[in-house]
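Hey, I was hoping to borrow your eyes for a little while. I'm sending you its amino acid sequence along with the C-alpha cells. Take your time with it, there's no hurry, and the full record follows here.
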Amino acid sequence: MALWACGAVEPSRDWELTEQIHAYVDLIAKALELAGVAIIVGGIVLATLTYIREGGRAGDWESAYSSYRSNIGRGILLGLELLVGADIISTITAPLTIESVGLLAGIVLIRTFLSFSLETEIEGCWPWRRAIKDAARGEPDRR
C-alpha cells in the first residue's frame, strides 16, 4: 500500500503544490519589483513638481534645489529597499547555483551601497553620527 493512500500527500500533487507556491512567490517578487520602480519614478516626478512649485513660489531656487535632491534621494532609497526585497524573495524560486548566488550577492551589495550612500547624502552625515547631529539640533532620537 502506498504511503499517500494512508493520508499523506500524493507525490505528484506535492510537486504540483510546490510549483504553485513557487509561481505565487515569483509573482510577489515581480509585484515588489514593479512597486519599487513605480516608487522611484513617482518620487522623481513628485520631487520635480514640488521643486518647481517651491522654487517658483518663493523665488529661492537654491534652497528648493537642496530640498529637491533630498526628496529624489528619498524616493530612490525607498524604491531600492523594495528592489532588494524582491531580489531576496526571488531566490526562493530560482535554482541555486554558485553563479546565481554570486549574482544575487553582487546585486544586493550594489543596491545596499547605493542605499547607504543615498541615506548619507540625504542626512548629511554618517548613519552612526546621526544621533549626535540630532542631539546638537535638539531633536529627539529617531531610532
User: Anything to note?
Assistant: Residues 16-133 form one domain. The helical segments are 11-58, 61-90, 98-123, 130-137. The chain has a mean pLDDT of 83. The two ends are 60 Å apart (CA to CA).
